[in-house]
Amino acid sequence: MSMFKTGHIDNFTRENLPPRDQWPWLNQAFIDANYAERINASYELIDKTIELVGPDKLAIIAADGNYTYGQLLAKISQMANYFESIGVKPGNRILLRGPNSASLVILWLAILRVGAVAVTTIHLQRANELEKMLGVAKVQYALIDHRFMEDWNLVSNFDGQTLIYGGENDVFAKAAAFPTTHTACDTASDDVSILAFTSGSTGIPKATIHFHRDILAIADTFSKEILKPLHDDVFACSAPLAFTFGLGASVVFPFRVGATTLLLEGAPPPVLIEKVRENKVSVLFTAPTAYRAILKSTPNLDLPSLRRCVSAGEHLPESTWTSWFEATGLKIIDGIGATEMLHIFISASDEAIVPGMTGKVVPGYEAIIVNEDFDELPTGEIGFLAVRGPTGVRYLNDVRQNVYSVHGWNVTGDLYLQDANGYFKYQSRADDMIISSGYNIAAPEVENALLSHSAVAEVAVVGEPDEERGMLVVAYIVLQSDVAESAELIKELQDHVKQKIAPFKYPRRIVFVKSLPKTTTGKLQRFRLKVEDK
Asked: Which of 244, 266, 288 delimits the end of a domain?
């Protein structure tokens, strides 16, 4: 339960928090030093930011409109007043379905402003996926982009109120009749602000619970200490706001300091880099896959406005980091985060970056490497990453809470080692470690070796059962467009890996494919290869 008196009337999310003894340890000293008992994240990100930069500072650049902070506050206030007029109560869950846009950000901030709980979904998710989320979150209102109603109309388990934005019956047109000022709901710092669903789940998805103070904590840890944003920065991110990586990069981090955000509905790499140039983007967030694609597709990578590049969502190979640095002179900030933790908790920037290493713990967080018995491992040994800090896992009414929260730590499912200098080096996801003939082989290490060969455009390495070795290292490779498949090339690639890493790690089998399975945001899905090749 809350330490403070809730501002919620609808207490569904609070009543479905895990028991307190199942929570991970939280950095209460950091929380107490930075956050008052009463906090509304919308007020902090807009009203308080206007006190810093003024109402005329540009906040959003988007296809559906550019907004200053003052214009944004007026729109958010109108929408908040409209929500209250139709009966939205603090604590109600409101689903959002639409691509990144100014409208989506206004709606998200208006939801938080009235003390409701934002449940942001990916606009390409299908009806059966949405139904699972609705079953977990018990949503009462849904705000749907008019262009993405088709799948929403097929949803069978929603009996709440659907509101459409854009097109006919636009909710913004209705809100325009309401006042442009609004007093933010008096929420407690630990009132629930968002439910963020984990991606890539099988079966019933997990809804992670985050408080109003958590929204600010990710800005006051990773962004403040590692990213070090400036109020004249222009941010851009290829990830949707439904992913907390995108939420932080496109909304929370820029708005916390009064910077500008460029919101892109769809950002394939050639479009992304064109928009960076056009809008003088200075801070770019995207996945390693996109950095590699940009390197392949863009002959001239002179990007004078860009000062920060951030990678997360999947392992950043050292070869990609080096190629980007050689082409642009920019050091990619690597980072590991999790939906459960809300954002990045291990990273490094500027001179602290060590290529091939994820980085050190972000100030405010702690991390250790443990074995299966939860004994802390010595320096240099590979084990499970466990982390804790001002944010932590709280699943909504889910028995899997104790899988992620163990002995007060958040166990991410990643295999890491920590070196003598305190740097953490990614090995693999726990289920991406290949044990072959008694050797532990990390799939990303083999991938990195293959990516350093000029013939390889993309690669995914998985372990497949083998009677002789237990598991076999298998590489699925997308070749560069001007390279032909051949038995000679397979041998050449295998020999290349043997030259790059320990010879026993080379792929015993290589399969050439036209493409690799990925999520909508370009994240590699190795598990699908394991299934599809059977």
From this structure: 266
**pTM attached to this predicted model:** 0.86
In a domain, 189, yes or no: yes
Cβ 353 vs Cβ 324: under 8 Å: no
Domain boundary among 266, 297, 330: 266
pLDDT band of 127, cuts 50, 70, 90: confident
Cα(393)–Cα(177) distance, rounded to whole angstroms? Answer: 40
What is the residue type of 519?
Answer: T
Q: State the Rg of the chain over Cα.
A: 23
Determine phi and psi for 203, rounding to 5 degrees.
70, -140
- Identify whether 194 is part of a domain: yes
CA distance 523 to 261: 23
Predicted confidence (pLDDT) per residue in 67-102, tens digit: 999 999 999 999 999 999 999 999 999 999 999 999
pLDDT band at 200 (very low <50, low <70, confident <90, very high): very low
Helix, strand or coil for residue 213?
A: helix
In a domain, 122, yes or no: yes
| Beta pairing class for 58-62 and 67-68 | antiparallel
How do 234-237 and 283-286 pair as beta strands? parallel
Question: Which domain covers residue 173, as residue numbers?
Answer: 1-12+39-266
Structure tokens given for 29:
């000293």
- The mean pLDDT value of the chain amounts to 93
Whole-angstrom distance, CA of residue 86 vs CA of residue 162: 12
User: Is the pLDDT score of 199 beyond 70?
Assistant: no
Residue 105 CA to residue 63 CA, distance in Å, equals: 13
Query: Tokens for 358?
Result: 């994820």
* Residue 216, domain member (yes or no): yes
Write the CA distances from 237 to 74, 277, 282, integer angstroms: 25, 14, 11
Do the Cβ atoms of 199 and 246 come closer than 8 Å? no
**Number of domains present in the structure of the chain:** 2
Q: Put residue 364 in one of left, alpha, beta given phi > 0 → left and psi -120 to 50 → alpha.
A: left
| Nearest one of 96, 125, 122 to 109, comparing CA atoms | 96
Q: What is the CATH number of the domain that holds 115?
A: 3.40.50.980
| Residue 453 belongs to domain with CATH number | 3.30.300.30
Question: Rounded to whole angstroms, how far apart are CA atoms 431 and 87?
Answer: 46
